[in-house]
User: Fold this.
Amino acid sequence: MPEQTESDKIKQRNSDFLQVFSGSPQGKRVYDFLAKGCFKKECTFNKDSARKSDFNAGARSVILEIDNWMEFDLSTLEEAGKTDNIEPEREQNE
Assistant:
């Protein structure tokens, strides 16, 4: 079996995330559970504890990573050509 290219690996990962989190009612329920528990639409700041704020931000990064892979635009792979760095770019403030 030939070794997968980076582009193939990214396409497979995108497909896996979509299948797991939006391919069934169960996956959608798990996604919704994670989105709520991982502060997807909530502020992660805790006025009483910087450590809690950091913990919350770390939890939020989980759902943002899932979203990142589910929303990845595969057409950018063709534009990127053969490059070592074709994973989805993240904002610096995430």
Remarks:
- The mean pLDDT is 89.
